[in-house]
Amino acid sequence: MTPEERSRKDSSATGSGAAAPRSLAESLRARDDASLSALLRARPDLITPVPTDLTQLATRAATRASVVRALERLDRFAQQTAEALAVAGDPATYAELLGLMAGDAGAEGDPAVAEAFPRALATLREQALVWGDDERLRLVRTARELLAPSPQHPSPTGLGPTAAETTAGMSPGRIQELLTTAGLPTTHDAVSAVASLTALFTDRARMAALLETAPAESLEVLSRLVWGPPYGQVTPDPAARLRWLLDRGLLLPTAPGTVVLPREVALHLRSGRAHRHTEPLPPAVEAAATHRPQIVDATAAGQAYTALATVEELLKDWDEGGPSVLRAGGLSVRDLKRTAVALDVSEPVAAFWVELAYTAGLLASDGEADERYAATPAYDEWRELPAAERWTRLVTAWLDATRTPGLVGGRDAKDRTLSALGPGLDRSAAPEVRHRVLTLLAGLPEGASAAPESVLARLRWERPPRADRPAADDLRTRLAQWTLSEAELLGVTGRGALSAQGRALIGAPGPADHAPPTEAAGPGDKLPVHRQHHRPTPHVPLTAAEQGAAASRAARLLAPLLPEPLDHVLLQADLTAVAPGPLERPLADMLDVLADVESKGGATVYRFTPASVRRALDAGRTASDLHVFLAAHSRTPVPQPLTYLIDDVARKHGHLRVGAASAYVRCDDDALLNEILADKRSAALRLRRLAPTVLAAQTDPAALLEGLRALGLAPAAESAEGDVLITRAHAHRTPPRTAPEPVPEGPPPPDATLLTAALRAIRAGDLASTTPRKTTGAPNASGDLPRTTSAETLATVQAAVLTGESLWIGYVNAEGTASQRVIGPIRVEGGFVTAYDHTADEVRTYPLHRITGVAELADEG
Q1: pLDDT digits (tens, 9 = 90+) for 530-558
Q2: What is the distance between the alpha carbons of residues 543 and 8, in angstroms, rounded to a whole number?
Q3: What pTM value is reported for the model?
Q4: Options 3.30.428.10, 2.30.30.100, 3.20.20.70, 1.20.120.140; CATH of 771-857
């Protein structure tokens, strides 16, 4: 049942002989379970914790925090309807409220408003912001206080207070003067005088006649105030154009030097409309360009491959321990800049990749004394997955993450800089906004990219920003902008259009459900416009099974579009190797050791240097191993210069041996040691000869190795036993870490099981608190809880066991909490009564000494 149908049902039930509700609690009591379930789903904070009865539910629904939250989650037209009701009479009729929305032209003059108005009112009723039948509509008092106009808090409609409210402190003589000047007969009291003035202001014909006599300058003053703000400043001796308005009550004083345009006058000048522009329909999501879906998918797949390579490059760069963790947590500005340079991206983009790896659980702090960031064990498992599955892991983590990389570099509430990987980056609205943006893109035809401003306008209509904050500074607007750019970086979109794998991830219809355009739109072509249902579907997180199925489907769609890993390279005579595509992991890992990456792109260029070859030899490879490896993985013959380079470096490698004394150099060729001592560049090493084949150094072995290599030599480190030390890259890993948990935005929407249990508890508690009863003892001072003696309690309960009747009891539990319950006693023995508790909907046992009072239920009818 839709909200409109429920609203009509509730309204007709109230009007068909049933007494009109006198409070919000009575209105909720008249609802069925489906209507209450809809309320609790829309406002989950109302059952955290579960209320004891419907009165407590109504009280909680009217609290300021809950009402503010509910108002902020309304769409623009529903908000406008609530704002109009806040300036209408209390109570207001359906026709009066519709008139404030459509103006004097009525529903016939504005069909869009007439069509959307019942839906908006049904939404307000469903969320318990409005109650009462169509003849007595009431806005919850807290909402009226938030939306009603006052000098301190002007109304969102731009309307001021009523004439009655403004003249409340005015002298009776002054009010009679207003009547006389306006051409009205005087009255015998101020109340009737204000009523006469209000009747004039609300009479369209008489007001039109009065304004026809107004000077043009006075009308110009009214035109400046009519749409708000309605307050203006006047001098002690106002000009003639202002005096004319003040004498007739068209402007009324509110404070010394301040006047206001009464609400009734403003509504006349507005032709009865509460808002200058009503927005019954959501803005269209417009297509900026249209591409062939195959091009979109291929472009997105290319970017997806780049995303995987970027994350791998980032974590490979931090393999031996990444940057230090700041004392307050996070990455320093200097380290972020270094990371951006290493990845060849801007700093905001580098922050995005770092945060993505952290969100996916691939990166964390190691927790050691000198705390640093490093890859987690999960990173090694992730690397072994097929490329398409690695991509879905990243994108799924991004979709549901509350951490927001776009905030990096900004300031928090205490004016502290927000750093990547640091605290303060969680924004609970992020997952909902990401899903909503992608859903809007999915609603466009296949291959169509959305105009960003139209997406932002749509989101602002669905969740209007606060009136005191510019639209550009609205968090949801910024989240949407970041989503559009991040989705392109990840390959969820290609050329601004949602890809097939992106559709699969959010469960949107695939290409078969839409007819793709036959050709790209030209510059002069009219692009399609997308209009979805005006009420967005609330974002409900997928279950683990649903998320897994969506990820599997996305991976299947992406896998054929990704390039297959290659098992070969192309060796060239200039000591470079070209990888024409992604390489298989063993080949890529070996090349990373043997050569340096010179350039990236569609093809990766590796360069062989003496230092890179020496690095491979240090890792335990021999010259023959390297020759065999290159011959096996090159589609071109191994160039002679590369063979010579490997042999030359291998011939020198290990000829010198460096060990720890502090450090020493050992070589069988004493002539070479003489050359080293004679070289001025070795002075910093502070070498001296200990024996014909041994030099000692006053530095550590690592510094000695680097110093000798700087001289163009190829020394090898050796152990205390004289064996050559093999130095392989050490992959530093953190202890097992879990990915950061998203920070929810308030209580999560209740599932069906929780709703059923909550409704049963609320209904039972309401039965206990509202069931008529006749007391068997004297009531206490408040008249709520009768007190009975132990003998009276026992006798009444025993009688109920025999007759099978239910009783009302007052009960105090072991924690001292008092409650009222309706029970059906089953047996009494040993100082305990066993009974069916209608409040809890189960059989329970109660100590008789904790029952404070007992009463029989009143007879029905």
Answers
A1: 444 444 545 556 677 888 899 999 999 99
A2: 34
A3: 0.77
A4: 2.30.30.100
